[in-house]
Structures are given as C-alpha cells and as structure tokens.
Specification:
OB fold (Dihydrolipoamide Acetyltransferase, E2P); 465 residues; 47% helix; 13 helices; 5-stranded parallel sheet
C-alpha cells in the first residue's frame, strides 16, 4: 500500500487551541456544578504565606483538588489537618494553567462523630478570645420589669411554661412574644433579626422593653444548634437591652448562654428570675407599709411634743427675753462691721497717699529736667576734656615741628651745605651714582643750580676746608 499516493484528508473547519478547549470545559463545569456538598478526608494540606489553603479531599476510590481562599479560611472554625474527615460546600472550577478541575471551598464542616461538638468548642474559643464572654460586659437584669420581650416559638412548650409561671408570680407584667423558628435551616438568622428588631423598636413602635428572653425547650445538640451559631452570639453581644438565655434543660449549654447577660437553666427558671414571687412581693410590701406607718407615727408624736413644749415655753410668756441676746449680738456685729469698714478705708487711703508720693517723685517733667541738667553737665565736661586734649596735641605737634626743622635739610643747608639731586629727584650720595652727560641739580640754602656731569672721579680725596 502506497501511503504517499493517497490524497490527504481535508483539514477540519475549526481547530481548538488547548486554552480554548480548557476554557469551554471550565464554563461548562462552573455552570453545571455549583453549591455542591462533598465529604472526604484531607491529605496534602498546606497553608501558603498568602493565607490561601490547598489540599486534596479523598476517599477510598478517588480524590479531588481543593482550594480554600484566605477570606473564607479566616472564618473556618474547624482546625484543618491531614486525616481530618470533612464536609465541604463549594463550586467546581477548572485551574486552566494545569488543566485540573478543583473545588473552590465556601464552607467547612467537620464530619463524623463529634463534629458539632468540635464546631461548638472552636466557636467558643474564638468568641472567648474576642472577649464576648467577659463578665464586665454583663448588664444587670431589672428586678421589677414592666415589659418583657420573649423571643421563641409561639407554639413551643417553653413559652407555655414561662406564661404559667409569670401569670402566677407577676400577673401585672406585660409580655411581648416575638415569634421565630428555634431550630432548622434559617432559625439562627430569625433569632438574630428578632434581637436586632426589639433593640431598635423598643420605645418606638414597641413599648419600652426592660428585659429580653430567648428561649426554647430541650432537645438534641442538633435541635439546639441555632443557639450555637455565630450570628446569634454577635446579635446578643450587640444588644443594648439585658438578655436572659433559657435554652433547653439544666444540663444543656449553648454559645448563647455564655454571651447573654444571664443564663437560666430552664424556661421556667427564667420566669422566676425575671420577677419576684407575688406572695413574696406582697409580704415585702406589707412589711414595708408597717415600717412606714410606724415611722410616720413616731414623727408625728415627736412633732406634737415639740409643739407642746413651745406652747409652754418662754417664747409664749416673754418673747422679748428670747430675742434680747440676738438683738445684742446684732448690735455688736453692726459695730464690728463699722470698725472694720473704717479701718479698711483708712488703710486704703494711706496706701493711696503713698502711691501719690511715689508717683510725684517720678513725674515725667521732673525726671526730664533732672536728666537735662545731668546731660548739660556731661556736655560741659566733654567740651573741657576735648579742649584739654586738643591743647596737649597742639603742643606736641609744635614740639615735633621744631625738632623737624632742627634736623631737617633746610637747617643743614643754612649752615653752608648743598644737596645734589639726579633727574628723578633722588639725593646723590656717591659720585658713582652719576655718569658723564647726566643732568643734576644742586640745592643751596637759597636757590639751586642745574648742571651736566663732565667727568666722574669716585676716588678723588675730599677737599680740606
């Protein structure tokens, strides 16, 4: 068979690139596999410095690559590690760079026995670290509330138990029932919304609420789980109204119990904590009334005795005698006031005179006259000193002038000597300073002559006089 003799097949109309095929697969997978729940066991778990987590979810027959991005990982309460069984919720996607499909995780739940307890403990530790359980944040529960809001199921046994107790102990109490679901999907959101609503509307569309109770009857941990949700804990923490948590039986504990201002072991116990017992209150009122009556009678008796003593006392017989000491005291106070006023005025007047004298001594015109006279005296001294210095300098100058005349050339010339100068005006001290043909001048005491050098004889002897 000749392969090269065969006619080649026609090329396909469209050829996909790897990227195009992978992108089409990603679009198909992401649109068809959303909001999945998958269970399996973690392996190859690693947390990057960016905060993203990458791991493989596997079972006995298959494995699935998973990615948990930072913003979701920060909300995960389950401590993740290799070998942990999990239930994951997320969307299936394709990592195009590797052509690998993976689960983008949105929610993490522990699977198997004790998974809810693990989530309970993890949330409890988280909220405790944030300070939501701090005792100093607890608000006091009013001892005599007028209006109480009860957030619970309107058909549950918890509400009936509370109403039975409250109708016996505090029939005057106004009770507002805020109906919510207390278990199942969405129950936590309803409870949180109800808490926010009673806080916002208290004293507005609703009567002013003194205390809030969130309650339900007993059940399994799954039944009570709505009260372990973080959204309910946050709503309790944000409540400005005091809240009593009464969830389940005495042995049941929820996250709401730790955040609320007071925990009641049962709904009936919450009703007893809300108000005093009617019989106890009546007994207390009776005792208080009796004490008040005895106190009023004692006050009236004491007032009556005071009136009787006043009627029989000196105020009625001789009132002037009672008032005399007070009048004398008033006169003495008046005299003391007059003396004190006179003394104060005298002291102030003396101070004013002293200030006037000091001001007169420092009058500007007087100070100016004194300074002017001092300046004139200083000027006179300055002129005298300047004249003296000028005379001294003039005498010294005259003395130096006389000395200069005595030692100067004019004095020498007057004694018959002459002075020969070259054409530059320099004194000729040696015959060798001039050459034949050079001009010169000879100065006498009076007059000068000009000549020309005919010959120079530096070795000629001096003529004898």
């Amino acid at each position: 068979m000749d392969l090269f003799s065969q006619r080649p097949a026609d090329p396909p109309e469209r050829v996909l690139s790897v990227a195009q095929l992978t992108r089409r697969l990603r679009d198909t997978i992401e649109s068809g596999f959303r909001n999945l729940w998958v269970k399996g066991e973690i392996s190859n778990f690693r947390r990057q410095s960016s905060g993203h987590c990458y791991f493989t979810l596997k079972d006995a027959s298959a494995q699935l690559a998973c990615v948990l991005f930072k913003n979701t990982a920060q909300q995960v309460l389950v401590p993740m590690h290799d070998g942990l069984a999990l239930q994951l919720q997320g969307d299936l996607s394709v990592y195009e760079a590797r052509g690998q499909y993976q689960l983008v995780v949105r929610r993490v739940l522990a699977a198997g026995a004790g998974s809810l307890q693990l989530q309970f403990e993890a949330l409890k530790q988280k909220l405790a670290a944030e300070g939501l359980f701090a005792q100093e944040l607890k608000q006091p529960i009013p001892s005599m509330p007028a209006t109480v809001a009860v957030i619970t199921s309107p058909t549950g046994a918890a509400l009936k138990d509370m109403l039975n107790v409250l109708s016996r102990r505090a029939p005057w109490l106004r009770i507002l029932v805020v109906p919510v679901r207390v278990q199942g999907l969405g129950a936590a959101n309803e409870i949180a919304a109800a808490l926010a609503m009673v806080n916002a509307e208290s004293g507005r569309s609703l009567p002013r609420i003194d205390t809030v109770v969130i309650t339900r009857g007993g059940g399994s941990i799954e039944d009570l789980w709505a009260f372990n949700e973080e959204i309910v804990a946050r709503a309790l923490h944000a409540s400005s109204l005091p809240v009593i948590s009464a969830v389940g039986h005495e042995i049941d504990f929820t996250i709401a119990d730790f955040v609320a201002d007071l925990r009641a072991p049962t709904p009936s116990a919450a009703a007893e904590l809300l108000t005093p017992d009617r019989a106890d209150l009546l007994a207390s009122l009776t005792s208080t009334s009796q004490r008040l009556q005895r106190r009023v009678l004692a006050i009236l008796a004491n007032a009556r005795r005071i009136i009787d003593l006043t009627a029989r006392g000196p105020l009625q017989r001789d009132p002037d005698r009672i008032l005399l000491p007070w009048r004398q005291s008033l006169d003495a106070s008046e005299a003391a006031l007059a003396d004190a006023t006179t003394h104060a005025l005298t002291s102030r007047l003396a101070s004013l005179r002293d200030l006037a004298q000091r001001l007169a001594a420092r009058r500007p015109d007087r100070v100016l006259a004194e300074r002017t006279a001092a300046l004139a005296m200083a000027a006179e001294r300055l002129h005298a000193r300047a004249a003296s210095l000028l005379d001294q300098r003039r005498a010294a100058l005259q003395q130096r002038a006389a000395l200069l005349r005595t030692l100067g050339p004019d004095s020498v010339l007057s004694r018959g000597f002459t002075c020969t100068l070259d054409t530059a005006g320099r004194v000729v001290r040696e015959p060798s300073a001039l050459q034949p043909g050079d001009s010169f001048q000879t100065r006498f005491r009076r007059g000068r002559i000009t000549g020309t050098v005919v010959s120079v004889d530096p070795d000629a002897p001096h003529a004898k006089s």
